[in-house]
Structures are given as structure tokens and as C-alpha cells.
Amino acid sequence: MELHRPTILISNDDGIQAGGILALAEVARAFGEVIIVAPDSPQSAMGHAITITKPLRLWKEKLSDGSIGYACNGTPADCVKLATGVLIKNNPDIILSGINHGSNASASTIYSGTLSAAREGAIQGIPSIGFSFCNYDEEADLSAAKEIARIVITTALRQRLAIGQLLNVNIPNLPLEEIKGIKTTRQAMGRWVEEFEERADPHGRKYYWLTGKFLLQDTREDSDEVALRAGYVSVTPLTHDLTHLEMYEEVKKWEFND
Amino acid sequence: MELHRPTILISNDDGIQAGGILALAEVARAFGEVIIVAPDSPQSAMGHAITITKPLRLWKEKLSDGSIGYACNGTPADCVKLATGVLIKNNPDIILSGINHGSNASASTIYSGTLSAAREGAIQGIPSIGFSFCNYDEEADLSAAKEIARIVITTALRQRLAIGQLLNVNIPNLPLEEIKGIKTTRQAMGRWVEEFEERADPHGRKYYWLTGKFLLQDTREDSDEVALRAGYVSVTPLTHDLTHLEMYEEVKKWEFND
User: Fold this and answer.
1) Is A155 in contact with B56 (Cβ distance < 8 A)?
2) CATH architecture of B7-189+221-251
3) What's the ipTM?
4) Domain layout of chain B by residue ranges
5) What residues in A contact B236, CB-CB < 8 Å?
6) How far apart are CA A255 and CA B153, in angstroms?
7) Using one digit for the tens of pLDDT, what is the confidence trace for B10-65?
8) B94 Cβ contact list (under 8 Å, min separation 6)
């Protein structure tokens, strides 16, 4: 008797031709049937945007390893919506997003397109994992990241990652043998301190490039950014219920009036 | 001796010429100095997107009530980043976003551009409030919504809404005298069930329009959507720490290995 081979939906935010999505698909094929639906162009920092003012298109595209995926002209969250709403009759068993070329720890959890694809899965009740490798070079060697992804997927399937559960996995930019381990973490407190670079166009009009420096405001060893800097893989379970429970108790005592 | 008049930054996602932002600015001027920085075009459902692949521009624009605001070619979150990074020397005392033409309760908390402007403020440590009126008509009568906004701002300033605190205020589509009260709430569990409308372009190629129906999966009286349907204004305190704390305790027990 054959065991059920899971259906695995893969997306990302670096676009369908990025090296990271090929690497993740290669890892995932050992676990089940893989369907790739990803943006046709890079969609970094798209947050949880969805497309409601233009029509979406979806087409087959050959990836550089010869396999076939589906490209979409929308955001990462759109890709997951189209995959579950149009392409796949039943929901996939799990959604994997990435491997992102760059970190999605701390405040980047909020801006990340990689995580919005995974979060969209979680909202729909599908267990989902986002993978990010702390190296922004698109040509980076992904072999350590692939091995970590394999171990995390093995563990998550064994532990029966449940309906609506969402993991944010960040992998430090180190050779496999220098990675100290895999740590369950919290989102580190921190933020980007913006530094806008002001320039003038050939017509003399000002414009701004958004740049910035990450400011870590956390020292907890079990926070994702601190764990990464210490050489660990961080695994942060994420919620999509954004209620601030402590503040909820406080605001309940307010009297709303003049 | 004069009291300190707060500096109030106002943004939205419906664009700088939307009726809702004028209404909010009119209310806010009673409380302090108002600066408007908003997208030059509608940015609904932009989630927490930011712009890193094209330059941002910022220009003065006359609003339909004759006042002057700043328009920006970016997302709601970009507007707040530009306002605090380029326009204003010191951080504003409070950020108000809206009044959005349409609800941002339950799952829409995640997709909302209105809330991303407010959330960006909270990440930067600025107390922030997002206002949404549960009527999608851009010509809707906003008088009840304005009165509710006035009461909520009065209360939040009196209670000294603190650094990094963020409120999501949704106002039911009712005349003021039929609104039952203002309730502190949680984000209701629910999701959009997608229904893609498939069409063919004049060349016979398929495309899809994202539509959908909201599915409420919550019955708690103190959840935002349930409170709204019962005729209350909902005030949901939001966090930008997305760690799932219960799941964190569970995943800590996992052994990550083959």
C-alpha cells in the first residue's frame, strides 16, 4: 500500500526564474508532488499586497532546470490565491515559499513577499513555511540552505504541522558545518532606520531612493535576529491574528467619550 | 502658557484626493498641526508593501477643500517613511490613517493599505490609528464617521496612546444615532473565499479577476466583525510582533533532524 504523497505548492517573491525557488523545488520533490506558481518578476518587499485593480494572468513557463512552473503577473499572495482558486482542485497539503535571497527576520517579517505567500496559505488553513537565506547575492551557493530546508520540512511533516500553522525559517550565511543548530525563535524587536538618498533627475526635479540600516532593538537569545547572528537557523512560528492582547485588556478600560 | 499642539501626520490608501482623507484632516485640525502625505492614486489592498525598485517622488498638491498636502508615487507605508524621513524633522506625535472607504476588520487587517500606513508609524514608535468606514461608496456621507473619529482621537490622546501603539478603528455603516457604542475588540477569525472570474481577452487569452466573499469564522461578541454587525464601532489594538506565542512553546519541543 502506498502512502499518500503530499501535494506541495511552491511560491516565492524573487520571481519564478530565481535560483532559490529551483533549490526549494529540488528539495521538495523528495517529499511529494510539486507545483510551482510564482511571480513573473521580482516582488521583494511587496508585503501582503493583493491585486484587485488589474486582471491576473497565469501561464506555463519552463524553468532553467527544465521543469515546468506557472508564472503569474501578480504578487506572491496572488500566486497562492490563483493556485488554490484556479489551478488545484483540492488545497495543497503544504505551501513552501522561497528560498528567499536575503533575510526575512525581525521587522522584515512584515515587509516580506516571501512570507506573504506563506501567510496567505496559513489564512486559507494550509500549513505553510517560508525559507530565507541571509545572503542577497542571487548567485549564492544554496547547498547549506537546501540541507536546512530538507531537515525543517522532514521535521514539520513528522510533527504534523497543522492547519493554518506558519513557520518563518531564516538560514544564516554560513557553510553547513559552521551552522550551530536550529533554534525555535520569536520575531526580534527592531526596525529599519530610513536613509533616503535624494537625487535630481535630468530636469532638475528631486526624487528619493529608499535605503536604510537595520536597527536591532532586542537582546533575547531566542529572538530570530540574535539567533542568526550567533550562527543558528531561526524558526519563528507566526500568527495572522494581529490583536495585541495586552493592549486589548488595557483599552477595554478606556471610556470612549469627550 | 500655551499647551504643546501635537503634530499629526495623516495618510491613507484611497489616495490624496479621496473624500475620507479630507474628512479625517478636518477632524484632526481641532487637535493639532496637520500634515497630509498620501499616495497620488488609490492603493487599496497594498498590504505592507514598500518601494525599493523605483525612485519615490513627493510633491505639493492642492486638495479639494483648498488645503495643501503632499502626494507621493509610492505605497501608504512609503508615504509614512518619506514623511518622517524627509519632510518632518521630528517624528509626528501621532499618525492617523483613513478614513478608508470600506471595512478593514478581520482578515482585511492583513491586506489593508490604510493599516499599513498606521503600522509603519507604530514600527517607528509613533502612536497610530487607522480609521475605516464600512461603506465602499466614495460619495458616502462621512458625518457619522467623523464624529466617531473625533471621539476616538479625544479618548486616545487623553489616555496617552503610547509609543508604538496601534489601533484599528472600524465604523459601521449606520447613522450616528443608530450606532450602539464603541467596543474594544479583537481581530475576528475569518477569511476571503476567492472566486476568480475567468474571462478571455480579444485575442482569446484567459485572464482572471479576483473577487471573493468574506467568510466569518468567529462568533465572539468582542471580535471586530461580530461587533460591527451588531452595530458597534470596533477598536482593535494591533501588534506588529507576529510571533505565535502558543505555537512557539510547542515548536520549542520539536527535535529538528531526519
Assistant:
1) no
2) 3-Layer(aba) Sandwich (3.40)
3) 0.92
4) 7-189+221-251
5) 243, 248
6) 12
7) 999 999 999 999 999 999 999 999 999 999 998 877 778 888 888 899 999 999 89
8) B6, B8, B9, B32, B126, B127, B128, B129, B156, B157, B161
